[in-house]
Each structure stands twice: as structure tokens, then as C-alpha cells.
Amino acid sequence: MTSRKWISALAGLLALAGLAIAWGTIIERVAAGSPTALVAMATREGPQPPRREIQGESESPTITFIANTTATCYRPIAGAGECYIQWNYLSVAASSPSYIISMTVSIDGRLRANHSGFFQTSMFVPGEMYDPGFRVTCGFPGAGGVAGMGNTYSYIIRARETSGLAAANYGSVTCPADVVQVFVPLIVRH
């Protein structure tokens, strides 16, 4: 066997091994019901209505649901390919004697904001704090599974309090379609 064929065969085996590991990880997370798997499933199925979860006893929670308006995605400049995801506000509260420790915002599994509390029973984050929003790629028409619209992004907003309880909001938002337009100047050489 020549060295080129040997290298090609080895590269093929490594690619198959990498694919097997990736599928194994996906199957493991889906079986475990991890938030990452839930986000991946929401992305595959298209836009999902927001969902709320709260951890703890259902009869007497010490942390409230995270209050937030529906996420919006807008395109400020056509042809730039940039969209922004934003909320009007995010809010969560803990009942005494607990305090809010943190609230985080993740978009497509990537942490975008982390707010920490210090001896406060509630946390309110106005939308102006994120102005103009979280920058994402708009996407081609139909990219997110909705005709004429762009990419669909899943988000998770989580909050924790001092007694160890947590709350989370899951949802997705679809952006308008937009394609980057690049104009190459015509250069004439003489």
C-alpha cells in the first residue's frame, strides 16, 4: 500500500471515529434529557412557544418563574446580514429568606449574559442594558424552517437562588432573512 493510500485510509477511519463519537454524545444527551438536547430538538422542529420550568416543590416554591417578554429578532440594516435578539426586560424573585444568586442568557448554547446578585430578593434587568440586543446572523430565506424568514435561534434564560432552587425559560425566535451583499469594485487596468 502506498503512503498516499495509507494516509487516505487513516483519514477516513479518523473521520468515521469522530462521527461515531459525535452521534454517541448526541444520543447520550437526548437519553438523559439534558437542556442541550432540548435546545437541539427545539431547533430541529422549528420555532417553539416559550416554556417555563421551576425546580423545587410545586406547592411552595421559593423562586418565581422568570418573567420576560417574548424575544424579538430584528434587522436594523438590510444587506448587512446582522440581526439582533432582544427582550424588553427579564425579572425573577426569591421569597425570604432566600436571595437571587444569578440570571444567565444563552442563545444556541452560547452564554451571552451573566448577571450576579448580592443579597437581593429580586433581579430586574431592563432591555436597555442589552441595547441594541444580542447580535446573530440573519440567515438565508427558509434557513430556520419558516418560509421567507431566516435562522431560528433557541434561547435559555436561567436563574438560581441561595437555597439551590432554579428557574428556566426556554424558547426560540426566528429572525428575518437577510443576505450579505458584497460589491466588488470594477478595476480596469491600462
Spatial arrangement of strands, main beta sheet: 1-11-10-6-7
The top level CATH class name of the domain at 50-176: Mainly Beta
Per CATH, the architecture of the domain at 50-176 is: Sandwich
Low-confidence stretches: 13-44
Classify the beta-strand content into a percent band: 35-45%
Q: How would a crystallographer describe the biggest sheet? A: 5 strands, antiparallel
The proportion of residues forming helix, as a percent range, comes to 10-25%
Number of strands: 11
CATH fold-type name of the domain at 50-176 = Immunoglobulin-like
What is Rg?
22 Å
Measure the end-to-end span.
Answer: 54 Å
| Overall spatial form | elongated
Note the main attributes of this structure:
single chain, 190 residues, alpha+beta, Immunoglobulin-like, 5-stranded antiparallel β-sheet, 3-stranded antiparallel β-sheet, 21% helix, elongated
